[in-house]
Amino acid sequence: MEDIEMYKKMLEIRRFEEKVYDLFTQNLIPGTMHLYIGEEAVAVGVCAALDINDFITSTHRGHGHCIAKGASLKKMMAELFGKRTGYCKGKGGSMHITDKSINMLGANAVVGGAIPIAVGAGLSCKLKYPERVAACFFGDGASNQGTFHEGVNMAAVWDLPVIFVCENNLYAMGTRQSIAMKVHNISERAAGYGVPGVTVDGNDVMEVYGAAKEAVLRARRGEGPTLIECKTYRHKGHSRFDPAKYRPEPEVEEWMAKDPLILFKVKLLDKGVPEEFFQKVEGDVKREIEEAVEFAQNSPLPAPEEALDDVWVVQ
Amino acid sequence: MREITVVEALNEALREEMRRDENVILLGEDIGRYWQGAFKVTRGLEEEFGPERVRDTPISENAIIGCAVGAAMTGLRPVAEIMFGDLVALAMDQICNQAAKLRYMSGGQVKVPIVLRTPFGAGGSYASHHSQSLEAWFVHVPGLKVVQPSNAYDAKGLLKSAIRDDNPVVFCEHKFVYGLKGIIPEEDYAVPLGKARVMRKGTDLTIIATSLMVTRALNAASELEDEGIFCEVIDPRTLRPLDEETLCNSAKKTGKVLIVHEACDTGGVSGEITKALVRGAFYHLDTLKILAGKDAPIPFAPVMEKWVAPDEERIKKTVKEIVA
Question: Could you give the angle at the alpha carbon of A262 between the alpha carbons of A260 and A266, nearest 5°?
């Protein structure tokens, strides 16, 4: 993926999430939501290092992963509206968006729940698709789950092609990292499983991409998993109307000044990408999102009894 | 025709399905060449199929099932063994939140064809962490099929169907059913999920029994026949989906039903079977009784352990009370 395409993907995520927040506050979207604003460089940096055939698993904060992997904004938005045309026909919502056609195995609303699932996808890669890898996104909080320990260890002993991507946004809901673990860098935990662990600036998309590329190459060579910790920050609260008052002002200001989109734009400008590109891409993304909202709003609701579809595979 | 044990029947089912479909793989603790499974169900399979397809895992129940789920979503058909039924508690998120729901939550995009095999049941003084009957937990979760074979023929045929099924299947194997011998045909066969089996015909009373209790019910029925009481014995074989029709047809015929399972009384599948009978045979029912395990964890001392589960004597006594 070219760097300007990466910028566009990051912008798509940012503007999509801003629109979702806007629609949510107007009560047009039910339930809850966990916005990815501020963390765009992680999903885009990692997915830029993957092919469409590679698998990913995601989290409750999954919109960014979907968009970065290439999901349709229309089908995502329709799902958020609970419409029949959504990815999950209205049965999953924000926290369960899945797109099998691009090997996006699903957002997952159990913290750490998808970690062993990514290990299983890695096992399929090893046995069935030796050219493929699986990338597993999860948060700092999930690294305290048993599934993290069990999953990384299992992938390690079997040399599975899995890239464990820890999005360390410093807070598990309202719990600061230092309250929940002794280590400062979650990547240090990799040593306990005998696999490489690296910490990168999760707001620098090219740094994330570089680490992901190396881990993907390593995995494709059959050398096993890597743990990449991406230090980042969410610009919004954990969910819904969380004002995130538990975060000190200076810390928030420091991270807001490291906005991944602005950092990347400055780099691209330095590289000679013209200002017109940014204006054009802003317009393109705005239009795509408007089309997605229109699609969602004009789509039919599911019939109530469709709640019984897809419980079973009927053979 | 051959006479083999349930363990041998299960082993044959795994071996034949692995030969038939290279996507079938096995995961579990000590299932490989060194230990061959805690109860030897996987004997010789690593030798035939190699360590890539027969994988000894770390002691990580949640990751065993989670790994099976992820592998199933991406094209494999894993059969995962949890060494003792009680230890499924360590994997409940992956079974009940992931395996059971991922197809639904994805709007039907993915399927999760896994089989979770687990030995359960009391009788060996293994005490409370290695003996409970937990099948009812899984019956309560939409998206999971639940199977409990009582004999060698059904064990082989049901496991083959479970492996070929595209839904997640929890396959509960009683440790004291493992050694029971039965007649198996030479040719390939499968027993469909969701079909009960009439194990013995009778006219006076219907005994609906599961797993090891089927053998005890058959023994009791045989002795009761000498006293002029003719019991019909039915094994549901699959607890979800439950073959309500076969159960109700027998209840309509006899009007008297005794449900027997080893799992403790409160919250057991007897409640579901009762619901099916009330729904489908209410006006034909004269008497309905439940003989289940006592409401206690499984104790260690043999004298107590024997007492908490229904046995032939208690079945006979209850039948006589009903028909008196």
Answer: 115
